[in-house]
Structure formats: C-alpha cells, structure tokens
Q: What sequence folds into this?
C-alpha cells in the first residue's frame, strides 16, 4: 500500500510554509515543535485560528508544518494559510471553507502586498529630506 503525502503551501511576505496532513489525534507541529509551545503568544493565536474555526476536525488530524523566511508574524500567517488549505482539502467540506472565508479571506487566498523598495534621497520608500526655501 502506497501512502502518498499531499503538500499544502502558504506564504506571507517573504515567509513560506508547507503543511502535510494525515489522520491522527490532533497533533499540530510547526518545525517539529508542538504548536502549544510556539512563542510569542500572538503568533500562536494566529496559527491556531483555522484550527478553532475547524472545530471537531482538529482532533481527527495530525498536521506538520515547515516554515522558513520572514519574521515571526509573517511565519505565523504563512503557517495559518497552509493549515487552512490542508483542512479544507482534507475535509472536502464547503461549509468549513465558507466559514474560513467569512472570518478572514486571507486564510485561503494569499495577501499580495509586499514591502515597497527604498529609493535614493531619503531614509525610506517615500520619505524625503524636507526642503526649505527661506
């Protein structure tokens, strides 16, 4: 019997996440660390959002997520996207998909916004040195 694994990706800014899902007892791991131990708490809450929306389904699956790049919030959001996609595809439940989209569309559809590149003549992308003609 061949067990093929399906991968689900999610990305936010420069963070990329890949999730695998299988039948299990509700273990969620981010880079081999149980999600309950993820710090800071803000990042943990972001990662747990799709699991809370999934309800009882959470206790029937094990999810492993590998995340790299970006900062902690970008990583958390990328992981949340990958988990959401995995849960929706695994359950084949259109009601779950609707619930997730109603809560936050960006849990299934990636957010295209990126950092604007810095230009010359100032400290940031748009800020410039002030001019005074007096």
A:
């Amino acid at each position: 019997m061949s067990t093929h694994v399906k991968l689900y990706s999610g990305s936010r800014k420069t963070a990329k996440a890949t999730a695998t899902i299988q039948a299990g007892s509700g273990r969620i791991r981010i880079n081999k660390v149980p999600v309950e131990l993820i710090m800071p708490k803000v990042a943990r809450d972001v990662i747990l959002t799709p699991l809370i929306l999934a309800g009882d389904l959470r206790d029937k699956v094990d999810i492993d997520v590998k995340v790299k790049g970006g900062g902690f919030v970008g990583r958390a959001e990328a992981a949340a996207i990958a988990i959401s996609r995995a849960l929706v595809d695994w359950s084949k439940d259109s009601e779950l998909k609707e619930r997730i989209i109603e809560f936050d569309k960006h849990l299934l559809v990636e957010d295209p916004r990126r950092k604007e590149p810095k230009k010359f003549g100032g400290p940031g992308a748009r800020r410039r040195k002030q001019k005074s003609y007096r």
Remarks:
- The mean pLDDT is 90.
- Helices lie at 41-54, 72-91, 94-103.
